[in-house]
Amino acid sequence: MDDDLVYVYANTPQEEVANLIGKYDYMAIPVVNDQQQILGVVTVDDVMDVMEEEATEDLFKFAGTTDEELNYSSAFQACKARLPWLLITLATGFITSTILKYFMVEFKDVIALVFFVPVVMGMGGNTGIQSSTLVIRGMALNSFSGTDLFKRLMREIAAGAMMGLACGIIVGLWAEYLTRSTATAQISYSPPLLALTVGIAMMSAMTFAAMFGAFVPILFSRFKIDPAVASGPFVSSSNDIFALLIYYGVSMALLAVV
Question: Which of 7, 134, 140, 210 sits between 20 and 30 A of 178, alpha carbons compared?
């Protein structure tokens, strides 16, 4: 068979077939066996069905469930499909609450720091979801691969750092205002130092979250695990833990509380 002819095998993954048709703007592509004998064709209409199916599947995975749930008639089946990821999220909640317990003990005299725990955790989680979603979508569309994945990872880290810097400055200014205007701010640490602590923690948490959110899908794909799973509760829950640890570490370093 002509080496320049684009074709697929009967066992070629449907996503790869869709990518080939999209890449070359074909209306159809031949399907052959191992002996290069034509078995049939895949049309662009077939590909559209596949793309819709894959997009729906990924959407449900982002939410920590499956598209099979659309066919479930009982609440028990729906619960069975969703509960595993929710239990994982609950487990990470236990971890974050334990970390927060020690955080409160160490910084009982700097209670103003606790005001910003939800902000740091929330921004870290959102940043991680953004990065993982972009990487997963790019991998699905074959927009980048191989060495491009490393470049994408570096780009996400840089973007996370820049977004973290901007958000860190904003939250730092707000932290100084809030601590100056709150009675609990009457402590041995100045509002500017508290603001600096919160700002650096925010920047660090968002930078790490961007790196983690981009790296996990790449790692999953290397181990032949569907990377769409990484963009759901796993990344957001993990980033909650890391954001809190980063906040705790930065506070320990800058406020010298041991």
Answer: 210
